[in-house]
Model the fold of this input.
Amino acid sequence: MSEWDESEPHEKRYQLAQDAGSAARVVAADRQMIAALLSNPTDLKALRAALKADANPDRSVINGHPALHVAIHRRDLKALEILLRYAPRTDDIAPDGAVALDVAHRLRWAEGVRLLQLHGAEPRLAKGEPPDLDDIYEPSYQKRINGLLYQMVRKGTPEQVQQMIDLGADVNARDPHSNPSFPPLHHAACICDEAKVEILLKAGADVLMKSTRGHEITDTMWQSRPEHLYSDAWLRIHDRLRQAGYTNLFDVHPLKLDAAQLREKVFIGGREDPTLLQYLVNNGKADTVIDLLTKPGAPALTAAELLKKDTTGFGGTLLDSFGRAGKLSRIFTAAVWQGRVEEMMSLRPAVENNFTNKKQVEFDAAYQEVLGQRLKDLRARAPKLKL
Done:
């Protein structure tokens, strides 16, 4: 019986992948089977040896066609008989939706039809069933192995990701079980796994692919866990994707964002997308935001912006977000307000009405610092004035 007829085939493959030796043996056996089927004539001895060594008889051999279909297209009765001894799935579909018996009927290959029928094969297209190639539960080795790749990207090891690729997984197939549906590379970048990103890139993953809702890979990276955002690994992955050819006229390196870009919406696919400014502060990156906001020439943070109510699900105002992050002391400084002492002081009631926020800000000291900076700037501009 084919391993894919088991009740939990994914779990069986997952267990197999825990043993590097067993996985390497199966990968080698699959490759031997493919080479045997593509040789001219078919290398029957190598085919038997590969199947005996646990090659998967359901494996897609060429252009999405299963091993059975290849033998049928070649009208190779001996190869077909050898494969059928190892109980392949006769209902697996080719890219056009045909099953093995459909292919044999099309070719008017009577011997193949009889042999398949002896092993319980049934037609599909011949029964008038139109192919639904978007059905994620359609019997297909390619879809099963792709599903295992998604599983390994999410919770497996880099070695297991490589094994699934070696077993025929398509690194550019979107995950049909998620909505929106993402390619494996998007998942690997989002969980900030450098090793998996590198494996997928070397296997031909397309850095320009988008999700079914239009997310580019860097959009997905903004959805990384808070501990990953702006981490060294996260930044290295961003750089690696650019090196691999990722480009976007609107994409800016995370360390080169300016204050205007922080005010743009970040595409995270929620009910309403927040500004990148709000998103980063609420994900533990308040210090990074303040560093970007206080760069020379950056558009100033305003009191109105800090007091604007958030409607994206984070709750409260941007001022509250900085307060929850414990970073209000960094907001009430000369570097942020750039001499706008009256505007800064207008926020005092909002801060002091919140006990948690009130403890973080010493307004008298902040007032003196901002006022002192304003006087210093005035003296620099008009040194002869007595201020």
